[in-house]
Amino acid sequence: MQFINKPQFKKAVAYYRHSAEDKQENSVPIQREHAQRFAEKYNIEIIHEEADEGETGLLADRRGFEQLLNKWVLNPDAPHFDYVLVYDVTRWGRFQQTDESGYYQFQCERVGKKVIYIKNGFPREGEEFISSLQISIERYMAADYSRQLSDKVWHGSMRVSKEGFSAGGVACYGLARLLLDENKKPIRILKKGEHKMISNQRVIFTPLNDITTQTVRDTFNMFVNDWYSLDTIAEILNEKGILSANGGTWNNGKILRILRNEVYTGMIIYNKTSKKLRSKTVKNPRNEWAMAADVFEGLIDKELYRRAQERLFWTTPSKWKRGVYMIEKTKKFVEQEIKDLFIKQGIEEDKAEFNIKKFPLAYSISFVDGDPLKKYTVFVIEEQTRNYEKVLAISVSLDKKELIDNVFLIPTSDFNQCNFCLFSEQDKCHSEYMIKSDKIYESVMPFVDKLTTSQNK
Fold first, then answer.
1. If both were cysteines, with which of 102, 328, 380, 453 could 420 make a disulfide (CB 3.0 to 4.6 Å apart)?
2. Residue 77: pLDDT above 70?
3. Could you give the CA distance from residue 201 to residue 199 in angstroms, rounded to a whole number?
4. What are the pLDDT digits (tens) for 161-174?
């Protein structure tokens, strides 16, 4: 757009932004050229420039942007100027709340500094409303571009992860990132901060085969086979002078992160948490993870990992003793109830007891881990239970008068390669799998009918 009355002898501060995802035509030097040509055309003197290189426009906490506002626009002692020159709305920001973009522009204009988007030019006299409407639409389009790009990146990362390759990030302690060529042949180990250069190259994990790799293996063996506590393992590693992932000393929290990391079995896992568009990090339920098992040489075998998870649950001695007792008590009660159902179906008592052994049952005790508001439940099944589509999972209460806390109907596909499934009360699957008390009978009967039919053949 052109304007009618050209401003004379005005001054401006220019702002430029170029993110890592932007194309070269949005580089800071090119934005500067546009600003200088615009200023020359309209007799404007650019007295200062601020720039952000490699900075996302999703947030306002960019060094150049903050200095523009705090040291120039809102600073009463700053030299006088009339305009803030920005190449276009996207350079100002891709705020997901478009009102946030308008808020920062209003801060400028409230103190007499008009924000001019060079690509749009000055609005024609009498067309200020149309110009404002156009800018509002461009703010929405700028935000939507980031949303679409985020979705494309997410879907691409999910696909790559399911194929067994790393979707980005750093390697876990004891592992390295191995670069593969277009034919999936190894090229070299990537150093910290290095990334693939060609889009159809891939990255996969591999053991570092150094002291860190051995430390991971030793940690699992000490915990599972030697029955050392987390504190004892940390003390042993510190006495040996072995550094943790961040170069510091070990503590039970760091040991715990090693023991809970399923990646060490040779598995790629993606989407355990989400933080799209710089929003708050959200933990995702296991059925939303992208996983690929046995895609690289694991540091430990699956059985060792499974035993570690079982022991982690019972690290508190009091829970161990009371838990074993309560599970056995609940098991007898549940199996007697199911046995009665078989007998009502005309199955003889000895055959009913035989069917109970085939019944897809799993037991667990909910536990709190760190945050008292987050209660977790972990179930472990036998390999033969995978012959069923679902398993009847019973959560046992340690502290209530009732034996049973909750009953779940869990797809066996949700159990990982080590045959265990863990979720918290905050996970969507908790409510999806939980059976209401008045629905338990109709959830159990399909299993009874199936085993009864098999028995009568």
1. 380
2. yes
3. 6
4. 888 888 877 889 99
